[in-house]
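User: Predict structure, ligand zinc ion.
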Amino acid sequence: MALIVGVALVAALGCGAPPDVAESPSPAGTDGPAGGAATSAWPRRSAVLFTRTEGFRHDSIAAAAPALTTELTEHGFAVTRTEDPGAFTAEGLAAVDVVVFLETTGDVLDPPQEAALQQFVEGGGGWAGVHSALDTEYDWPFYATLAGAHFLSHPAVQTATVRREDADHPAMAGVPDAWSRTDEWYDLRANPRPGVHVLATVDEASYEGGQLGDDHPIAWCHPVGDGSSFVTAMGHTAESWREPRFVDHVVAGIVSVTEPGHCG
Ligand SMILES: [Zn+2]
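Assistant: Predicted complex:
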């Protein structure tokens, strides 16, 4: 059954129309690359929002996916949301610029699908992981490199202070040096700093129950082969996706991995 759905999706993406506009919202009302001229215009870039969950499922996916779709569309992206791992083939990813693991959990790809995603990123594609993307694919060695860290645990949702570390990165350009917000603050199995460029940390002195210590990265980026990775560990609550500043942080991070030269 899953295979049939996967084939149907690939077919839907591959036939008739340019593959990356198949599920695009109408460009009406935006000033896309065609100047609003026609629905047949090729968008500049294509994003896939992957929301499959094989473990815990966040209610906030229902708020996150439309928020990101709206904002990325305004940035000129064709956005496809899917929970179908059958999308992860060389053919399915050929016209894609960025894959977003949006609050995924658990083992979401089989080995051939993993190989397709690895080839996509190492060949120059963009990948972004949001919140429980860190609670995903524990047994796929490349994923540890791609994501930079894995989830360990979390205390209760509470307000904390995010400390901006790289004000020049697009994902951080719109936030203050000390950014107070409410979220579920992930602890990590290991500090990702040795392998990534840290964009922000969360100040464990500003909330209860943090376990990573004085240096607690909460957003980061790094090159992976010829491609790029961006991670924000924030985004647990539905309310996060109604915070314009937070949504802008995520969108800018997603856009950044489709353009060279932003990380570090
Ligand atoms: Zn969460």
